[in-house]
Amino acid sequence: MDRTKQYGHFSEKGETFFITEPETPRHWYNYMYNDEYITFTSQVGYGEGVAQDDMGRRVLLLSNRNLFVCEDGKYFSICALPMHSGYTDYLCAHKNGSTVISQQKNGIKSALRIFVPCEGMHEVWSVTLENVSDKERHLSLVSYAKTEVDGTYRPQGYNTCIGGGDEDKNAVWGRFYTEFYPDPDLPRNREMFAFMASSDKISGFDSRRNAFIGPYGDEQHPAALEKGLKCRNTDCNSEKLCLVLQNDVTLLPGEKKTVQITVGVAYDRGEIRALSAEETEKEFARMEAKYAERLRGVEIKTPWGDYDKLINGWMKYAADMGSRWARVRHNGYRDLTSDTECLACVNPRLAWERLKRILTYQYDNGYAPRTIIDGAVRDRKFADNTVWMTFAADTIIKELGDINLLNEEVAFNNGSVASVYEHLRRSVDFLWNFTGLYGLVRIWGGDWNDCVNYAGLEGKGVSVWLTLAWYRANAAFGRIAKAMGRDDDAKTAAERGEIMRERIDKYGWDGEYYIYARTDDDIVMGSKDCEEGKIFLISQLWAVLSGAAKDGKDRIAMESADRLLETKLGTRLAYPAYSHQYSYIGSMAEKAPGVQDNGGIYLHPSAWKLAADSMLHRPDKVEEGLKKILVSNTEYETKCGEPYALYNSYFAPETGYRYATPGQSWRTAASSWLLKSTVEYIFGLHPELEGLRIEPCLPLSWKECSIKKIFRGCEYDIKFICSGKSDKVSRIELDGREIRPEGNIIAPKGEKMNLTVYIG
Questions:
Q1: Which domain holds residue 724?
Q2: Which end of the chain is more exposed for a tag (fewer CB within 10 A), N or C?
Q3: What pLDDT band is residue 378 in, cutting at 50, 70 and 90?
C-alpha cells in the first residue's frame, strides 16, 4: 500500500472533500442523518441506511446500493464499479449532509447525489444522466438497494417478508413486522414497509433478491442484467427482499435528465411515494441550511489549513451525529453522553436537549446502562456509564449560563420522574457506594476500556481510572450544588472527594505513575512491576483532567507516559501489549499486539491527552500530539485513511503490514473530543457561569491564529498574537484597549466582541 499517494483534496474552505480516484486504500465514507434516519456511503456508493426510534429500536433498511445504466445489451454502474472499467472524469464530493458521485462512460455523463432530508425515515438519490454523444440514446436506469429489514441473510433460513411492485406509485415495496415505535392501541408487532419509489414512470421492478441478483450473481453483476438487461417484475414471498426499479430514459444529443429515487420505510402502503424534483431541491436546501445554522458556533484559523478544515466542518458534524446516533449500530450510553458534552462548545442548546433524552435511559438508582438498542436496555455490567452525564451537564450549563435548567424534570427508564439535578446526584451517589477493594470504584465488567471485561466480575476488582473519573464528576457536582444553593450536597461532595483522593494516592500510585486497575484477586494491572501491560495511558491523563493528583504526581505521571507510550505514530493506550490471554483481563488480550486496546494508538485518549497537556501548559506536547493525530500531517509518520475524518485507532508498529492503517472511522469519540480539546483547551475558551475564561496552550510555532465562538448569543472574535516563547497570556485587548479581567474571565457583552490576546 502506498501511504503517500494522494486520492483527493479539500475544497478551498474545506466544506467538501473531493475524491479523485475511486480505488482508495479502503472505502472512504460519508454519513448523512436526521433524528430518525442515518445512512452512509463510500466513494463508490457502498453503505448502509438505518431508521431509529427514540428507544433505539432500529431497522436496517439499506445494506448496500448500486445503480446501473443499460443500453444495447450492455450495462455499467454509475458508482464507478467495477474499478477501472472504462469510465472517465470520476469525482466523488463528500460534504456535511450529502455526497455526489460523478463519472463519464460510453458518451453518458452521470451524477448520483445522496442526502437525507431534515425529517423522515428515508434517503433520496438524485440521478442525473447527460448525453454527451452525437446520437440519440435509449437508456434504462436500474436502481438497486439491498435490504435486511427481515433480518440478516442465512442460507436455507426462513424469511418472513413479502414484497411486490406498485406501478401506480412507481414503487417497489416489502412488508415486514416490527416493534418499531410501539403504540399501546396497536398490536405488539406493527406492520411496516420498506420501499423504493421513483419520481418518473417506471418500466419494471424487482422485489426478490434471488431473481435480480441470482443465486450465483453479485451486486456488480446482477443476473437480471447479465441475462436480459431489465427487471423481471418479481414479487417476493418468504425469500430475501431487494428493492429495484427501472426507469427508461431517452436523451437527445446534449440533453440531460434527472430522476429522483426515494428509499425509505413507511407504516402504511399509502405513505409510499417519491419526492418530486421540486420537493427534492427544497428538502436539499433545508438540509444544507440546517447544518449551516446548527454548526456555526465555532470557527478557527491557524497556520495549519487542513486542521482548520477538519475542525470548522467535519468534527462539528461528527459530534452532532454522535450525540444522536452514538456509534450508529448501537446507542452506547457513554458514547451518546460524551459526544453531547463535546457538542456543547458549538451548540449548547441542542446538546441540552440531547442530554435530557439520554437521561431517560438512566435507572432511578443512579446507574446508567451500557447500551440501548432495539428498545431494550442492555447493561453488560459496565461500570463507567454513570460517570459521564455529570461532565456533560456541567459543561452545557456553563455554556448556557443558566443553572436553573437543572430543575427541569426528566423521566428515568422506569417512568418515574425527577429533576436533572437529581439525576446527577444519584449518579454520583451510585458510584460512591459502588466500591470494591480499598474503597476504590469497582471495574465490574469493564470501564471505558470495554475490553478489560474479566477483571471485576466478582465485584471486588476496582478501576483506578474510573475512580479518578468519579473524582472529576463529584467535583463538578459539588460546584453545581453550591451554585444552586444546595449547601449540604456541596459539603458532602467535598468530604467524599477528599476521602477518595487519599485512597487514589495510597492505592493507585506505583511510584512512577498511576496504575490502571486491581482485579478481583488484587492482581495489579498497569504497574512498573507487571511484565506486560506495565502502563495504561488513561490513568495518567485523568490524573490531570480530574485534578485528583497530589504533590505534582500528575506531571510525573505524564512524563512517564511520554517515556513509555510515545511512538512516531502517536501515543499507545497501553504498553507492552499483551501477548496472550490472561484469566483476569478479557477481550483486550484476545486482540493481536498493537491492535486497538491492546497497545494500539487509540485516538480518543490521544484527544484527551491534548487537553491534559494543555492543562499542564506543555505546548510542545500539544503541537506534537496534534501533528500525530491528523491524517494529513506526515511530519512524524505517514498514515492512510479519510483525511476529513478521525479514527478510533491507528495500528501500532508490531502489526506488520497493518502499521499506520486506521481502525474505525467516524464512529468514535475521538472526533468530538478533538473538537472539545481544540476549542476548550488548546485555544483555552473555558465556559464558566461568570463568562468565558481564556487560558490557551497554543503550539509555539503558531505566531498568529484566531477563533470565533458564539457564547450566549455574543460572537467572540479572538485573535492570538504569540511570541513563540511561552503559552501564558500576557495581555488582553478589547476593541484595541487593554483590559484586565479577573481570572481572564470575560462576560459576553452585546452581539460581538473583538478581542486580541497576546501570548508570552
A1: 686-759
A2: N
A3: low
